[in-house]
Write the structure tokens for this entry.
Amino acid sequence: MDEFSALREEVISCRLCPRLVDWREGTAAEPPRRYQGQRYWGRPLPGFGQSRARIVVVGLAPAAHGGNRTGRIFTGDRSGDWLFAAMYRAGLTNQPTSEHADDGLRLKGAYVTAVNRCPPPQNRPTTEERDNCLPYLVRELGLLRSARVLVALGSFAWTGALLALRAQGAELPRPRPRFTHGAEVAIETPGQRGPRTWWLLGCFHPSQQNTFTGRLTEPMMDAVFERAQELAAP
């Protein structure tokens, strides 16, 4: 079993957070009417994409009736509709939609993951729940040896990405960089093959609260991924 497969199995079997275990399994057992009859994934979600990805997209957590239902993060919900359409326009996927785990979606030079791997009630993990899950993100970033750019979707993902880089040995700038849409910061982590410079980019989360109100528009998201492509270029 390779390192990615081993990590995937660890994530899927995780039961560290009793509140999140109860929520994800309870949601799967009693879905809303529109999803009744569908078999829910109902387990933690690993990241997915190319092992040689140069761009890593980090979200907050799976949606209760999105990734928790379909078995793939940002899949089967409105946020995923926005994300993968933007990634398709940027040339990072082979198709603009992500409806279920076997729909043929492939990422190109990209990897998608999250700080937390279980859907939290009201989309609000506790600090303890975040910290329980954070080592999975740290390990993913270590395995993604070609990655250079982190696109953080929202302030929670921004903070999680900073903490993950610190756990890899980075000295974070002081004061700690604050999240805003379009924020950009370079952070260096040590490594056996020499230091690696990461570029952390901030993007408003493509939640309905942001997209329906116009706080996040398609051109705004496209600009972030265009910049990510520029920074990730060899």
